[in-house]
Amino acid sequence: MKYRALGLTGIQVSPFALGTMMFGALGNPDHDDSIRIIHRALDAGINFVDTADVYSNGESEQIVGKALKGRRDDVVLTSKFHYPMGEGPNRSGNSRRWIMIAVEDSLRRLQTDHLDLYLAHRPDPAVDIEETLSALSDLVHSGKVRAIGTSTFPAADLVQAQWTAERHGLERFRVEQPPYSIVNRSIERELLPVAQRYGMGTMVWSPLAQGLLTGRFRKGREAVATGRHGTQFPEQKLDVVEKLIPLADEAGLSLSHLATAFTIAHPGVTSAIIGPRTMEHLEDTLRGLEIVLDDDLLDRIDQIAPPGTDAGPNLVSYTPPAIAESGQRRRPAAERSAA
């Protein structure tokens, strides 16, 4: 296993990170089987483990905590906060109040006294970024968190956060966790260059595009209707898959191995998060660990899925309020009619 520098943190991580969203009620409810999968990944040299409080409502963190007993010091452990954890208006978001509660809950479930990385799972437009950075800085200074970061933040938000940290003497975001795959390449345009400019590591998620790049979903077949979360796959993405399959066959690779190898070929990408639900899924991914795509193959992928573009809407990315809320895109009706 060749390890990579996680930005400028000084931490060395494997090019694949073990995502644990599928461990627990959301995916694999068998704790013992999930623990065996985690141990197999660690034995294979993967030292990067990613979870979040919201995964199966804390169950994923509990499974990870049990799996890491006796092995915690060998693992770079990441968790995240933001999404609702229970009833009440203050049990979610990126406020200091919630961060301080959420981190203690995560540490307890994970049975550890610190997190190597603690990430804001999504932006929170209702909270001043200085508020979030101030709370996270206190966690770093207390030793409960080693480094802080973000997941699925727009490039502009990352720049604002870097400037805010510098202006107020706060800890900087050191890691970003964006979605990235052959069919969702828009982060190459701005986000990855921004991360590189500020020395941030990146751990990309959904390298198989919600299962689309496994080859199980094909154009014209009934099974194409929905992905893992009931998402309708756009025709443009299905068109890309139909062109990638013969390319992968010609290279002697499975489509999934081609897809995961593609994501870690970008110099701005530190690690790709894999999210197995079964041991079979993990073993298949591990067989692709050493695959390196040559320039000719990468050029041919570029011709099918142009750099910096998404093949259809990226339905799993963050949609800012300025796009999601029509009221922020239109002047009030009375003002429009007056004009």
Automatic annotation (TrEMBL):
Record InterPro entries: AKR (IPR020471), AKR_Detox_Biosynth (IPR050523), NAD(P)_OxRdtase_dom_sf (IPR036812), NADP_OxRdtase_dom (IPR023210)
Transmembrane segments: none
Chain segments carrying region Disordered: 305-339
Entry superkingdom: Bacteria
One Pfam family in the UniProt entry: Aldo_ket_red
NADP-dependent oxidoreductase domain ranges (all copies): 17-304
Keywords associated with the record: Oxidoreductase
Protein name: Aldo/keto reductase
